[in-house]
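Example complex used in Figure S2.
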Amino acid sequence: MMWIDISTTLLLAVGSVFFLTGTVGLLRFPDLMTRLHALTKADNVGLAFIVLGLSLQSDNLWQVAKLGFIWALVQLASASVAHLIASTALEQAPEKKER
Amino acid sequence: MALIYLALTTFLLLTLVVNIWRVMRGPTVADSILCAQVFGTTALAILLLLSHYFNNPYLQDVALVFALLSAITAVAFVRRAWAGKTEGIDDVD
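Predicted assembly (192 residues):
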């Protein structure tokens, strides 16, 4: 039981480090595309580590399946939203040169 | 374990507070919608942590609804509010 707790703590800590990385990137990166890049790190990897750590603590398989389903949904959504934002920004590129 | 859940929840909330700076400063509207996306994902992580802290599996269903809603919000914003300002975008309706 103790090893499960330790690995959960490690996975959760790594996940929050990725969330912190996403935040720092969002604040520090110079333009929209690089900020999009930083955002996807927090979205995909950070949430993945938190879901992994929490599934170790779950009671039954159904909870684990639901956690995995939430993560897959966020993957799908963030990929499509990132693509949509990037293509719209490229289409509007000439008129928004200022940062 | 309970203490770790609470500490991580507080940490994630603090990163959200820092993100508000980018929402207010964000030079384009797209930066703000990026921040909204981050808010959605972080709220998801916080809800999942709290569902283990309170030992309440229903919060996972709330997280599921949040995941759906934040995606729909971003898509609706890009298609309607942001892209709608120029003529070049193909019309959806």
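Chain A is about 85% helix and 0% strand. Chain A has a mean pLDDT of 87.
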